[in-house]
Write a structure and sequence with these properties.
With 241 residues, the chain is mostly beta strands. It is 5% helix and 31% strand.
Length: 241
Amino acid sequence: VLATAERGPNQDNCSASTFDGSNDYLTRSSITGLSDSKLFTFSFNAAQPTGNGQIFTSSNGQSSIKIESKQCTVRLGNTSGAVILKFSTPLTVSNTLYYGQHNSISFSCDLSDTSKRHMFINGVDITSSITFTTYLDQVADLTHTPYAIGSAQNGSGDFFNGSVGEFYLDTAYYDLATENPFWDSDTNRPNSVRKVIADTSVTPAIAMPLIGSDAGNNLGSGGDFTVNSGPYVGARGGSEF
């Protein structure tokens, strides 16, 4: 009751959906506004209490983009299928990433410049703590369809088990070290995709609150996702923790 009483009437809150780890996933055959690029930015909030799982994948079987909240594994491939960016953050790197609770994870890069890559977890810059096993000055294949959120290979397996919210992805570079639009440093909480769009005046390809009753709603330019095995159970978003 006291915590509720402290909240202002206009406080921005983050949304999330619970994915059951067996049938829940979102899919789309193409994304308007997404192009092959050396520039790449994503952000999302996720809690993963058990198991492995994919947050986002592109292509069918040979993932060009592979994000796992458990270890924050990121992989980008070029148009020939070769890996051009890959790294994994340890589970509790710099004591910022915690297994089983909501984490806010943001990453941006310009593959033409090794100084332009940033990884933030819960508002903390952990870039210097991770090792990029591959980082090549090549164009990433970001248009290799189909796309899936919450599952690998467009729903054929490796389903995410936990809650995901405020998923943002675009072919653009943000200098997160200078200004991170995905994190509110005053409240020490993540920002919603609605607030990010309002603050930056940029409409990305994907900006999804992932509200349980309407998880496929995309506020970005790429179009809504198809909800498989929905509607989902809503979850407390990252700003609630």
